[in-house]
Amino acid sequence: MAKTEPYDVIIVGSGAGGGMSAYHLTKSGMKVLMLEAGRHYDPLTETAMFNIPAEAPLRGVGTPDKPFGFYDATVDGGWQVPNEPYTVAEGSEFLWWRPRMLGGRTNHWGRISLRFGPYDFKPYSRDGLGYDWPITYDELAPWYDKVEKLIGVTGRAQGLENTPDSPEGCLLPPPPPRAFETFLSRGFESMGIPVAAMHGAVLTQPLNGRAQCIFATPCGRGCSIRANFQSTTVLLPPAMATGNLTIRTDALVYQVDLDSAGKAEGVTFVDRKTGEHHTVKARAVVLAAGSGETARILLNSKSPLFPDGIGNGSGKVGRYLMDSVGANAAGQFPALENLPPTNDDGMGVEHVYVPWWGYQKQAHKEMDFPRGYHIEMGGGRSMPSMGLARIIGDDMTSVGPALRNKLRGRFGSVVGFAGRGEMIPNEDCYCELDPTVKDKWGIPVLRFHWKWSEHETRQAAHMVKTFLEVIDRLGGRAAPGIETDGAKAISKGGEIIHEVGTARMGASDKDSVVDGYGQSWAVKNLFITDGAVLVSSPDKNPTLSILALSWRSSDHLAELARKGEL
Amino acid sequence: MSERPYVSKVDRRTALIWLGAVGAAAAGDPARAGVVVQAAGAAGVQVLGYGTDPNLVHPVIPWPRTLTKDQLQACAHFCDFILPSEGPTPSASALGVPDFIDEWVSAPYPEQVRDRPLLLEGLASLDKAAWQIGASSFTGAAAAQRDSILAGLPKTSPGFFLRFRGLVVGAYYTTREGFKDIGYVGNVARLSDPGPSPEVKAHLERELKKLGL
Q: Where are the alpha helices (DSSP H) in A12-75?
């Protein structure tokens, strides 16, 4: 590693933001050192593609060691990471998902890849709530095009409001809807709610030397044939092939180091295996450690010049923390019983979804919450799991042939609905350094504060109301215990794992941490390319936007370096 | 299930792993191992899970099994009462589901630790019920007596019955034989996804028409 020091750029983190930065900067000819807090991870050899639950401990159910199930791609991390605590302020609830692996959460993510729309960049201008971004949709659109062409995203143009269509040649053909998806579409459409083809980061055709999907095995396990998007299969291999990328894993960065002129000269990290501390140098630093960890690094980077942490002169680091609003329901549909056996595996992502349909009503103040949500639906004749008996949850007695017949008849007739909605940033949701708690290596940890506002709880209530209405229209029976009170139905902060916004971009250093290119106002050769820079958190899942923003920021960084302006 | 005793269906590799763990934790005594697991998290030997970074492709189960021979036999009877063989379709015990119950009640994770007393006390209640009708134990009772006891469970012990049935159903249908029985036809590589067949589409249309959609 020491051979090529000082590097041109150090990138902290290897997920969507860091992976994309590494891809572009190495292809731009820059020598890059990537530091990843987790272990090395190779999806080609470590992914349990066709393993069935019977081959896993406890049939693969989630445990505290593997919360999303045994075969979930996430290794060496989760809701809790040994030796690396975080705290939550009294009265708050917040969950923080941290993979500790190369590629970060891109290995297990949901692959839903929706562009933010024009309204999403100017929410304050539209309804007076939240904050506007310093950039527009049109400025980011070319980068969305590039990302879609590089990673492979399904979908089709549908002409829906604030749900951008991609130019010709950007998207791959979506797979046909599964039977239950067609069924649900008919129900939603009868309510005047359009259903659209999913934009999923899965190859339905070969692309850029990668094989197409085999329409089997869950994407959340990762993909050993590289047919879905993971930083480890799509971004890091071509970056490595340039010869310009060095990756060091188990390197937990906790500080950006400054020179006497106040410019970044490198970072300091602790090796999680040995406990040794190391300092490495570069001409520029990119933080992409994830919104929480990036804020933590900034806050821990204290110096006489920045006594409260880098870029925190206006107290904005850690602020405006957001997550997606989430609420769920499930229904059992007699109409889906006894379907002839059909292979519903498809691509690992939903084939259709319900984009937000209420923009005009909200513009005319006809709804009691200001921002929208989309609906994801899971069901069909997917691989049975340990939860199978829930499909006969109303049957208290059957055994033997009666039990078998009921299970066979109802298999595939239960559908789960998940709403994912926009949260408006508020003053009560933020992270800061805990004044006393430190990790194993003595580094101060984050303390989270969280409080949903009525904007979100009313939206959650609307989600559940919509789910119950479509279940009823389709002759279904709602699962017992569905909570209709939005304040109770809503997810916990961080639970949807879309935490963004702790070092937001803005038009001036008075109200933001970085500019519209992710460049630190305070330290010019420091960039942030992860979800921390997001100004708002639309219902659309953030990863595609993080990739587009990261590519744009990295291109700007490379351009400044070329001009000698870093 | 036939009247022949249930024989574990675990493969040699798993058996060896379990054996090693039992030896380390409880000197090979299943009864003592049970005590150890019950004490896990409090005093006593810590029984470990598979950790946050297990081998996903070649999984191993690191905790010892703890059911006694008698408890395992009782499980086997109950498993096959819930899912007996049906023509060529195998019974639950033929697929090793009793071993899975053992794996479940012996696991160190919170959900399983919570289930353990419910399931063990439920199994113990079977012996009590057998004794009340004149048998020495549940496993020692005649087949008709056992079935009669099990048939009464939804009324006498609904919590135990439903939890046990849920585990048996889950364990059974997560096997390849279970997939076949329930009509799961996926987990095979395909060149394309043609979507639902005309037969499935016709079925759906009939149902949607009934709903007026």
A: 16-27, 43-46
